[in-house]
Amino acid sequence: MQASGALNRTGAGQARWAYWPEIDGLRTIAVLSVLLFHLKRGLLPGGFVGVDIFFVISGFLISSILLDDIAKSAFSVGRFYQRRISRIFPALILVILATLAAASLIYSAQDMASLGINSAAAAASLINMKLVSQGSYFILSPDAQPLLHYWSLAVEEQFYIVFPLYLYVATRFTRWPLAITCAAALASFALCVWLTPIHQPLAFYSLPTRAWELLVGSGLALFRSGGGRLSRPLAHGSVWGGLALIVGSIVLLQESESFPGWVAAFPVIGTALLIAPIGDVRPAPLRLLAHPMMVAIGKRSYSLYLWHWPVFSLIDYRVYAASEPMRMALKIALTLVLTLLSYGLVERPARTYLNVRSRRVRIFIATGILVALIAGGGLWLRSALYFDVRPGTIASGGTTVHGGKAGVVILSGDSQAAMYGTEIAAIARARGFTLHALGTAGRNQLPDEDGTSWPVVAALIAEKKPDLVILVHAWGAKLHGDPAALKKALVEIAANAEQVLLVAEPPIVPETVSREGLRGGARPPFFEPAASRAARAASMAMLREVASDKVHVVDVAGLFVDADGALRILAADGRLSFADPHHLSDSGTAMAHPLLDEAIANALAQ
Questions:
Q1: Residue 567 in contact with residue 507, Cβ under 8 Å?
Q2: What is the dihedral of CA 424, 427, 428, 433, to 10 degrees?
Q3: DSSP letters along 307-347, please?
Q4: Which helix (H) or strand (E) holds 247?
Q5: Is 349 helix (H, G, I), strand (E, B) or coil?
Q6: Which is it for strands 434-437 and 399-402: parallel, antiparallel or unpaired?
Q7: In the chain, what percentage of residues exceed pLDDT 90?
Q8: Residue 504 phi/psi, 5° resolution?
């Protein structure tokens, strides 16, 4: 697991582990492909297949080591996981913690909350399944997902939970381990091909649809360990053919919703063909892979892979207005420095220290504790920084802030309500009232909407008899020009609550008002699209229509529009005031804090 090599047979029942520098050279091809693709996608359109190359290499090397242990009657699941932890875990955790620390200085609360839950999933090797619900790898926000690349590590760790025992049983208790492995690979490949057009994110991130790539490498290790070899002419053809498939995949494949699918077979087969004759022939491609520079980069490929994406993401997030050459130079320089430091000061020393057999139990315990701490901390960040509650918790009060006995306030709505959760929670603590935050992104909390949570919300209002109910919705999208649903809600609220605040929507900004848009050259002034402005004015008219001495309207739009109509896209702290076209960032909601505070205080005083 710590060397790049292959299993050679020296006689019946005997095995010898040999180091092949070409494998490290192939790692260099894989990691640089991914790095260049992420640096600027046009440089290597298919560079993302570097991950597929890594999967084949991993399956080949890990299987070869396990077969070596089995042949020498030295197989041990405990030993396998100790080696795995010592090889993978120290740098993996270091990058997660460093990313959290750096992001805490520059990320918005919403993005920090997202990073919190992703860091928990990454530490637990579950982030691939977390990302399934977020969409395609090729369209996820490039600067607010700094642990996105951990999905491939999660796939590997899930694979190696069961694979060592599978390989032991297959080689010791069956006569056809290679045939069984090939059959499993074909089944996984068939599932991948079938699922990709149906649910591309699931096909991209999940183990069952990616296992075939690791199993191809495993099958190759079984073939070689059983004495299988290619004839000299076939070996040369295999190397050149494999190189052509890899280079063709990196240069010609395009990011699309059709990947992985059957297209992923090209880099996978190419990698297998390139590895198959290693040690038997030395054509030019293998001599190039064994060059000391290629080997040196390959040995550091794991640290390079771990560091590059967080560095790229954080730089794009923080200095989005800088020129592309400046950002690219910063990315490359910082990634190289961190890679060298991480490899020399953490990865290599930790691998040596943690591989001592006598430390195994302590290592397992420490690993479990550290994963639990990071996972717990990530979950806490998610809940502390973003008040998007699960619908199932509404009946019990949603997210509750026990600010004091100065009254009870209920905050209800969709993502617009969740957006203000942190600010209103701060007001609750300062004003001394208890807050029940019920806002749920992507859900309905008005009467008669599809799948609405209103009956549960209304029941909680009837139970708590709050002093104030705050309703915040994407009014234009939810009312559809007819305030009937809102009027119905207000009638039910009036029987159980003293006061109501209706918080109107902020301006809707153009798509170019984003870090990505500004990186692409968009510059202020920006103006709200005319259609959006008209729709917002119409929804504001409906809110004012239902206003009364107990129902008050808070219009935040003026905070984000200058006298000439230009949008205020920067907050006082220099950060963007909008998280996306329809939502404020925490810097934006902080701008609304005084207005909300005054409105809440006045309502509670009546």
A1: yes
A2: -120
A3: HHHHHHHHHHHHSTTS-HHHHHHHHHHHHHHHHHHHIIIII
A4: helix 232-252
A5: helix
A6: antiparallel
A7: 72
A8: -75, 165
- What pLDDT score does 139 carry? 67
Cα–Cα distance for residue pair 284/88, rounded to 1 Å: 32
d(CA 416, CA 557): 13
Residue 325: exposure state from Cβ atoms within 10 A (0-12, 13-18, ≥19) = exposed
Among 316, 336, 317, 335, smallest CA distance to 326 is for: 316
Comparing C-alpha atoms, which of 517, 487, 466, 396 is closest to residue 141?
Answer: 517
pLDDT bracket for residue 176 (50, 70, 90): very high
| H or E, element range at 469 | strand 468-472
The pLDDT mean for the chain works out to: 91
d(CA 75, CA 72): 8
d(C-alpha 82, C-alpha 167), whole Å: 18
For strand 408-413 and strand 468-472, is the pairing parallel, antiparallel, or unpaired? Answer: parallel
- pTM exceeds 0.70 for this model: yes
The C-alpha atoms of residue 153 and residue 234 are separated, in whole angstroms, by: 34
| Confidence bin at 540 (pLDDT 50/70/90) | very high
The answer for residues whose C-beta is within 8 angstroms of residue 452's C-beta and 6 or more apart is 443, 444, 445, 446
Residue corresponding to tokens 């299987």: 63
Segment holding 383, helix H or strand E: helix 360-385
Residue 6 scores a pLDDT above 50? no
* Structure confidence at residue 14 (pLDDT): 38
pLDDT over threshold 50, residue 13: no
DSSP 398: S
Least confident of 2-11, 224-233, 277-286, 293-302: 2-11
Please determine, for residue 585, whether its predicted confidence score (pLDDT) is greater than 80: yes
d(CA 561, CA 463): 40
Residue 197: both structure tokens together: 């057009």
Nearest alpha-carbon partner for 305 in 335, 275, 267, 268: 335
Rounded to whole angstroms, what are the CA distances from 152 to 48, 122, 389?
11, 10, 29
Asked whether 319 and 331 are in contact (CB, 8 A), the reply is no
Q: Report the amino acid identity of residue 536.
A: R
Please count the other Cβ atoms lying within 10 Å of the Cβ belonging to residue 170.
20
pLDDT at 18: 66
- Which DSSP category does 560 fall into? G
